[in-house]
Each structure stands twice: as structure tokens, then as C-alpha cells.
Amino acid sequence: MINEDVADGDIGPDPSLLLVDDDAPFLKRLARAMETRGFVVETAESVAEGLAKAKAAPPKYAVVDMRLGDGNGLDIIDAIRQRRTDTRMIVLTGYGNIATAVNAVKLGAIDYLAKPADADEVAAALTRKPGEKAEPPENPMSADRVRWEHIQRVYEMCERNVSETARRLNMHRRTLQRILAKRAPR
């Protein structure tokens, strides 16, 4: 059943929004921005806190970071979906790949956004009409940024073990260390 208010791009009668991200400054900025757009925002900085809030009062909308300090944000998506089937959820991540995007959608997420996503992108994704396609990004990631994101994802998968990451990427360990020491390219 489609909520007509959401289908028109509006928030609808239930503006509850749960934001879950372990990046506290980003979380606060996004929460303020979403409140100015009419959402009633609850925040959580961990899987445990997100699960507790989702179980206590399942929201109409949710924005969940994929990787949190104490686990995987998909656990929160799954918990919300079990309690409320009409929740519109999106996953945010800096370590995106096709397999996790597919898994997020299977668990009930309606979209999957790469960080850094701004409040306009988040609000548009949450209120997009069913079947409506997202606009292509104005500033897509550069090839250098895509490479850096891939290296970071493999590094995280290897539990931040430089030697193992270098082996899996078929890269010299010192070269990898230099890349990891630099800031992310734009």
C-alpha cells in the first residue's frame, strides 16, 4: 500500500525519522537539516542504540549508516522491517559495493547513498515517488576517489591489517601505507 502523501513527495502524517551514524558531527548536522524539512528526528550512534530505538518506536523513515563501530547497520534495517512494513529506509555508506546494496534492498531499504550525502539527497531519496528514478549525481566520484574507496573497503574487510590488504590488492605494503596516510581524493 502506497502512502499518497509520500507518493507526492511530501513527508506525510507521520514524520518520525531515525538517523543512525557513528560520525557524531555528521549525525548532528543531518539531524538539524532534516528537522528543518519537517521530520521529527531521533538519533543513534551505534547498532545497539539504533536497535533499542527501532524496537521501542519503529519510525516511518530511517537513514542508517552501513558500518557502525559496534556492528552492521543492516541489522537495524532488518529490525525495523520486522516491526513496521511501511517504513521508508535508506542506507548511507562510505564503503559501497554492489553486494551490500543488493542486501540492503532485500532487507527493505528503498535506496543506497554514498557518503558524503547531503540533506537534500537524503530527503529526496526518502520522499521519492515509487518508480521514480533518481537524478544522476552532478559531481560523480572521480576515478581516484573510487580507487581510494575500494582500497578503504578492502582495508576494513581485512580488519585494518595493512599486510593482508596489500596482499589482497596485489600491491606493495609501503605503497599501500602511503595511500592510507593521505586524505581521500575528491
TrEMBL record:
Q: Which GO terms describe its molecular function?
A: DNA binding
Q: Which SMART domains match?
A: REC (SM00448)
InterPro entries, A to Z? ActR_PrrA_rreg (IPR047772), Bact_response_regulator (IPR050595), CheY-like_superfamily (IPR011006), Sig_transdc_resp-reg_receiver (IPR001789)
Please give the biological process terms from Gene Ontology that the record holds.
Answer: phosphorelay signal transduction system
| UniProt keyword annotation of Transcription present | yes
Which parts of the sequence carry 4-aspartylphosphate? D65
Q: Where is the Response regulatory domain?
A: 16-130
Question: Does this UniProt record's set of keywords contain DNA-binding?
Answer: yes
Q: Which UniProt keywords apply?
A: DNA-binding, Phosphoprotein, Transcription, Transcription regulation, Two-component regulatory system
Q: What is this protein called?
A: DNA-binding response regulator
